[in-house]
Amino acid sequence: MRRLRSGFLAVIAALGLVLASAGPAPAAGPITTAIYTADPAALVVGDTMYLHTGHDEAAPGGTNFVMRDWHVFSSGDATTWTDNGAKLSISNFGWAGADAWAGEVEPRNGKYYWYVPVNGNGAGWMDIGVAVGDTPLGPFTDAKGGPLISDGTPNSSPLNIDPTVFTDDDGQAYIYWGSYYGLRAAKLKPDMVNLDGPVVTPAGVTNFWEAPWMFKRNGTYYLAYAANDSGCSQPGYACIRYATASNPLGPWTHRGVVLDQVTSTTNHPAIVEFKGQWYMVYHTAGAPGGGNFRRSVTLDKLYWNADGTMRKVVQTTGPGGGGQPPTGTNHALTATASTSYVSPWETLGAIKDGAVPTGSADRSHGAYGNWDHRGTEWIEYQWPTARNISRVATYWFDDDQGIDLPASCQVQYWNGGSYVDVPGQSSCGVAGDTYNVTTFNQVSTTRLRLKITSRSGYSTGVLEWMAL
Ligand code: FUB
């Protein structure tokens, strides 16, 4: 991930256990806004769904991961979540020093094994360790006293991160992991803390980048994972692809994209059935103040086709929450809109009518579009007196023809003499079928501008642009 995404390299001296924070979180949107969370792993035990997550602590505008511990969230309805606090920390691994990245908990013989990637302070960078506890909430202790997988493990991944562990019906457990296009797999011994046999390179997992998640349904093995090829996402952004197999070690057959790119560059899937409903759990940059290093876990319902393939997940609980507009005073309603270009048959005023689109192709309330212009265009709001603004929410128009989701965007304001980027801007999201919320330090201004850069060969459009 780091080589593709500039400025990501983070080596953080990380110590200390941060203990419990918030009470139950509200239904839609991120599972919490009290902290930033990432890299969810889902586990159902009885009537409870647990999410074991990473914890992003980068400062606003930070350009590296700052991750020191992992939290455990729990819910009885997959809607209201309780943060049970930081239940595992870098400091639990005496041989590790930083980078509490994406892990997963697997139950076995009444115990819960938490596999996590950490910077092991030894040769190379990331290792995979394992902690054990008596409940999904722990307490957890280092189960091995050293790495389970490191750069010294024969045939290990170019980056040993993102373990997913799966136990088959016959009791055999498997671990998959890796990044930098290097997916690896191995059997685990019944003690769950030693590999059983060689590390293999599974075949058929098209465009694998990182973040594998393995599960089984109706006798078929499924492997979801983050890819970042041009067929599914913008440069530097992940999408979630998946493959199926009839054997837990493959070979795998690629089946397509199950989750489009989100507002964060990275993404990390967990797919689970809970009380008869399947869910895709993932992260975005969409929470207030969020960004690529200040991510938030969210989840959406996942549905199946009769042939066992997964339907692409509709991101309804992402930025904006439930496909609904974010709350707050929308200054767009009182603004005068202008643009660098609008197609004569389109309606610039549609971006400020307050309508709630049902999807990016919904032009029932009109749409702004700039076909057949390519490159960078802008839309702008003006007010007779200054407005205090700290967020915008953009619902992109995508007609699946000449107008597509943009490659990138940028929010700017008039500082009295020129247009400049709004300060402290979180990522300017380009996801379809949702409100992309960009937060920034409050500005007091009479003019706000959204610069939109198209994908190669396409024009761009907007259904709603809110200024809050
Ligand atoms: O959170 C750090 C890393 O970013 C994870 O290990 C990857 O899966 C990606 O989400």
From TrEMBL:
This is Xylosidase. Residues 1-27 form the signal peptide. It comes from the Bacteria. The active site is at D39, E210. Belongs to the glycosyl hydrolase 43 family. Keywords: Carbohydrate metabolism, Glycosidase, Hydrolase, Polysaccharide degradation, Signal, Xylan degradation. The record marks D162 as: Important for catalytic activity, responsible for pKa modulation of the active site Glu and correct orientation of both the proton donor and substrate. GO terms for molecular function: hydrolase activity, hydrolyzing O-glycosyl compounds. The keyword Cell membrane does not apply. GO terms for biological process: xylan catabolic process.
